[in-house]
Amino acid sequence: MRDEEIIELYFRRDERAIDETGRKYGNYCQTIANNILGNRQDVDECLDDTYMKVWNNIPPTRPRIFKVYLAKITRNLAFNMFEKSRTRKRGGGTITEVLDELYDCIPDGNNVEQGALERELAGIIRDFVRNLPKRDADIFTCRYFYTESIEEIAEKFGIKKNNVSVILKRLRDKLAKRLEKEEYLVS
């Protein structure tokens, strides 16, 4: 079923919309959630929450790119679940690595208190990624949006793990310089 048809099911409040969403994008959303959470039970809960949130948001929202819309919701819910579980116990895995990697080039949340500043920061990062060469943008997105492991990225792009690590380090350094220039980071 085409995305537009699925969205129309949501607008008609037809519960088949959830089934069709799961059929078309369930594995995709599951991969995103699993990359962040790494626990089957949490992933299943995250997917349920994703479908519920989509159901509650459409209508009135009419996503332009349904797949990206689902990815963003899944990712945000998974990060929230991860944070809650991390406050209960200190975990490990790819998500901890990803957050540690970005720690030095993303300003502390205490320095970015207002929603407007957060949106501005998100816009700067989005612009940064858009202006990267395609492969670099894809690698950055795989790691820091989809939280894929270095191994997965290396396999996906047919390059060595060390090359992925070097590319990501260079990209983080460039992002940090951009954020310093925009006065979001003080060196």
TrEMBL record:
Any Pfam family hit: Sigma70_r4_2
GO MF annotation terms: DNA binding; sigma factor activity
Domain RNA polymerase sigma factor 70 region 4 type: 124-175
Presence of keyword DNA-binding: yes
Protein name: RNA polymerase sigma-70 factor, ECF subfamily
Organism of provenance: Butyrivibrio fibrisolvens DSM 3071
Recorded family membership: Belongs to the sigma-70 factor family. ECF subfamily.
Every RNA polymerase sigma-70 region domain range: 25-86
Gene Ontology biological process terms from the UniProt entry: DNA-templated transcription initiation
